[in-house]
Amino acid sequence: MALVSLINADRLWTRLMALAEIGATPAGGVNRQALSDGEIAAWRRVIAWAQEAGLTAATDAAGNLFLTLAGRDRSAPPLLVGSHLDSQPTGGKFDGAAGVMAALEAVVWFAEQDETPARDVIVIAWMNEEGCRFVPGMMGSEAFTGTRDIEAIRAVHDVSGISVGEALDRLHAVFPDLARKPLGFPAAAYLELHIEQGPLLEAADRVIGVVTGIQGKKTFQVVVGGAEGHAGTLPQQERRDALAAFARMAAALHAEIGAIDAEIKFTIGRVTIEPNAPSVVPSRVTFSIDLRHPDNGVLDAAGARVEALCHRHAPPCAVTITPLVDAPSNDFDSRLRERIAQAAHDQCLPAMAILSAAGHDARHLVKVCPAAMIFIPCRDGASHVEHEWADPGHVAAGASVLAQVLRDLALADQPFGAGA
User: Fold this and answer.
1) pLDDT tens digits for 160-215?
2) What is the DSSP letter of 73?
3) Which residue from 71, 169, 186, 392 has the least number of CB within 10 angstroms?
4) d(Cα 331, Cα 215) in Å, to the nearest integer?
5) Is 168 within 8 Å of 62 (Cβ atoms)?
6) Is the N-terminal amide bond of 275 cis, ω within 30° of 0?
């Protein structure tokens, strides 16, 4: 690997490990869920690092964090770069955080060279990418791009009954001096670095993934309604057992949807049972469905089949199916992908084109500006786990590629040429 000269690799790694101390779990992972005390503490630390370098901090109504390096033309659409700071309950040190810290390092290094960008460059930490505390995820980028209404986002509750609106109001009260940006504004481009969350780069011995796009995703919340009854007295044939109905649905869904082809990804990830008592026939089961495929036609057909199978196997219980996410597969900007590939080549870093199997905020940014992603390997492809790991050299390499692309765009009056 070439010498990484476009960033301070030691500073990047030190800060990334310091950030991982916030919400650290005994098993070595991170629990820093959206809008939690942990994320608030992460904001404080990241804002302090940014302000040391002369960046200014701001937020918006959706709780996105913006750290701005001022450019010569403050009216020109800015360049955006970032990821997210929230984690899964048993998440790792790198998912999201590596992207934010690489973005901050790239912009701080740029500022230290005494070069003024042609336009503002803004590091962003998006609100609730993970979607574990508040469902679904990517709320901050959805609000920013107009994909979802902010009032609908504010109305969502976590399992403790706290609404996104209440959590956002608390966040803003903690940072009363932060300027407020409008909810969405024109952007020249968006870049995001992330660990792959899969095994392909590691298996191919590649350091940089030039991400071609993100596979499509649909999610549903399914509620099965039955009736409570005494486990010892209610005859079997008279029962409206919500758990039994769920079991029939789950078996049918896994057998049919899960076997569509080798690229389908079907998951039932959360199940709640009520009243959840040993001697009471379950009256209500709520479960989640996560469905993904790179072909939008296959994905749409599978989504329709999900609903049909649930209705078929629900009786004698009732069933309500609520779609939560409908995100088609997307392609990233070819011009940015070419720049990423060229930067990897210039730095003698082995690279390959790769499709993202996981969802990211960049999926929504493609709707409002040219966008692209850089992947770096993670050990054994493991992510959303406490033993998630990325090699320090790979983190530095990805950040250096990011810095080269960002610097080239930032110094150009027209990032994509005349008439772009």
Assistant:
1) 999 999 999 999 999 999 999 999 999 999 999 999 999 999 999 999 999 999 99
2) B
3) 186
4) 9
5) yes
6) yes
Joined tokens for residue 264: 């389908």
Half-sphere CA count of 58, side-chain side, radius 13 A: 15
293, 264 Cβ separation under 8 angstroms: yes
| 134/412 Cα distance (integer angstroms) | 39
Q: What is the dihedral of CA 122, 125, 126, 131, to 10 degrees?
A: 160
For the chain, what is the mean pLDDT? 96
φ and ψ at residue 33, rounded to 5 degrees: -75, 165
| Structural domain spans, the chain | 9-214+330-411, 216-327
Is residue 175 a contact partner of residue 43, using CB atoms and an 8 Å limit?
yes
Tokens of 37: 């005390």
Rounded to the nearest 5 percent, the helix, strand and coil shares of the chain are: 35, 25, 40
pLDDT recorded at residue 418: 61
- The string of pLDDT tens digits covering residues 315-335 is 999 999 999 989 899 999 999
Identify any residues that bridge with 214 across adjacent strands, giving them in sequence order. Answer: 330, 356
pLDDT tens for 125-149 read 999 999 999 999 999 999 999 999 9
Domain 9-214+330-411: which topology? Aminopeptidase (3.40.630)
Q: Does domain 216-327 have CATH number 3.30.70.360?
A: yes
Closest CA to 138 of 385, 382, 367: 367
Answer yes or no: same fold for 9-214+330-411 and 216-327.
Answer: no
